[in-house]
Amino acid sequence: MYCLFGLVIPAFSQGAGNALLFHSGTRNMVEIPDHPSLDLGSAFTIEAWIYRTGAGNWQGIVSKSNYSGGYTNTSYVIKLLSTTNGISLWLTSNGGESGRSGTDLGTALTLNEWVHLAVTYSAASGTRIYYNGVLQTSGPHWGFGNPASLYNSSTALRIGTDHQGGDGFPGRIDEVRIWNVVKSEAQIREMMHRRLTGSEMGLSGYWRFDEGSGVMTADATVNANAGTLIGVSTTPPAWITSTAPFGAGVSYTQTVNSTGAVVFTGTNLEINFTAKSGSDVFVVTGINNPPEGTQPTGVGNLEPLYWVARKYGGGTFTANLTFTLNALDPFYQSNPSYVKLFSRASNADGAWTLVGSAASATATTVTFNGISSFSQFAIGYDCPSLLTWYQDADGDLYGNAMVSQAACLQPTGYVADDQDCDDTNGMIYPGALELCNTLDDDCDGQVDNLLTYTTTQGGSYVDPATWGGCPPPNPIPPGMTVNITFGLSNPAGSTIVNNGIINCTGIFTNQGIYKGKGSF
């Protein structure tokens, strides 16, 4: 049985935040007014995470174009080919048909899976199209070659649709980035699983789609190119929770062609290659957020983070993976077989597969041996039994029976005892000193019931206020018990009237009136 670590994380804290769902076969879009920062000149990079759910005709992704029987006022368009649903980039040097050229990728875009798309262009090197960091094609393949500079279109930038005659993109789009520089293959690979700050050099526009409501979406760069969600004869794009595999984190790249240990700096992962053939580029991204999408059933992460590890190249390997965590409970340090490694495909947002148990653990690390393929990794744990823990909001070591969670180990802020009658006051708990304050300090169901008074030898009472208690009521109501502990002698001096009875154990059980000081 796998059980929760006790970490409760609201949906909005997930690293990918929100995304936009574009409706198939209709023209719904994000429209961003023209701005000089969106004129890309002779070099650019455009990136996005996209999740295509169906076929269509000329499905647009990013477009700064107009069309009316032919291109007019057009700069650049990224869309799906109508024949193969592969990616196509169209550019113009003069805004019209006579100056256009393009690069097409015939391979169809994968359905129902997140894909990272990056398109780069420069007059010197032409077009490059990348899927998930892998170069698919370069061009141009048709038209009038590489424009020395793109036409500065005055039309709006649109996300999720082509020019005016095209169809809407069917599916989800997230994390759209436009750069006025060509990003290298290595940069694309390192950045695609990481959220940006918006202040990166050369970043002209950056739309995270994290608002979650309303009809506006912000540009995270200083250019402030805010977009409006628009539906043409239909509803605008819909806000949804994003499950794309990216978030705040650190990436590190290393070329590996031999055995030995490699520290992927900043990612909290060290890989010890025990067998290696060929030369491959390994890129590891440590994401400081819980995994997006479907969590492993009944499994909690030891840390609110996960990893995406990618291998680029045709070599093979076997390796031991050592993950650094904030802290590992002593139980798991002594029983590492209860710590589990889970994986799923690098672009997946669905179910996780159990890879195996840890071979060893320390206070801050856990190691898994014999790994021979890379993907997304998450760490969960098994436990001997699932226990119920109760929230201790006031820190008195007694919990609130109404707020609980199941966990293998004691979560922070939770205790095993559920008998606290007031979890907002650390002075109130079972067995606490009962004070004269109109509160049930000791959680016994009675208020101000500290009615036990002790004399010193010689029999002289001390004022009850000395002990923080309340004086007995006067007269004492029927049924109330007043415990009086005597000294060694009982000199005369006090009186009990109205049929008061004192027995040999010092328990006054009848109705009466307690008067004065002294002893019995």
Return Rg in Å. Answer: 35 Å
**What percentage of amino acids are in beta strands?**
35-45%
Largest sheet: 9 strands, antiparallel
**Class by helix and strand content?**
mainly beta
Overall number of strands: 36
Mean pLDDT: 81
Shape: globular
Portion of residues within helices:
under 10%
Tally of contiguous helical segments: 2
Name the strands of the widest sheet in spatial order: 11-7-6-5-4-12-2-16-15
Could you list the spans in which at least 5 consecutive residues all have pLDDT below 50? 1-13, 451-469, 474-520
Please give the alpha-carbon distance between the first and last residues. Answer: 66 Å
Give a quick rundown of the structure.
The chain has 520 residues and is an all-beta fold.
Structure report:
- By secondary structure, the chain is mainly beta.
- The chain is built from 2 helices and 36 strands.
- A 9-stranded antiparallel β-sheet has the order 11-7-6-5-4-12-2-16-15, with no helix packed on it. Strands 1, 3, 8, 9, 10, 13, 14 and 17 form an 8-stranded antiparallel β-sheet that branches. The protein has a 6-stranded antiparallel β-sheet with strand order 18-21-22-28-24-25, with helices on one face.
- A hairpin with an 8-residue loop joins strand 24 and strand 25.
- The chain is globular.
- The two termini are 66 Å apart.
